[in-house]
Design a protein that fits this description.
Blueprint: H1 2-26, H2 29-53, H3 55-61
Helix pairs in contact: 1-2
């Protein structure tokens, strides 16, 4: 489950970066603000999944 969350977050990030760049190039400010929220959510999902699956975390907390 945690690896699925990390993979989903990792998939959201590049898509949102490309969407953000497109919105900045065409001058659509609302779209760039909206996509920035998805970028942040994807980053949090990715980091939380990586932390839950890391070896160091399991080694020190078991």
């Amino acid at each position: 489950m945690n690896s699925t969350i990390a993979k989903t977050g990792a998939a959201i990030d590049p898509v949102s970066v490309i969407g953000f760049a497109v919105c900045m190039l065409i001058g659509f400010d609302f779209g760039s603000y909206l996509i920035c929220m998805f970028l942040a959510f994807g980053f949090v999902m990715m980091i939380a999944g990586f932390h839950a699956e890391s070896y160091f975390f399991h080694w020190t907390h078991d």
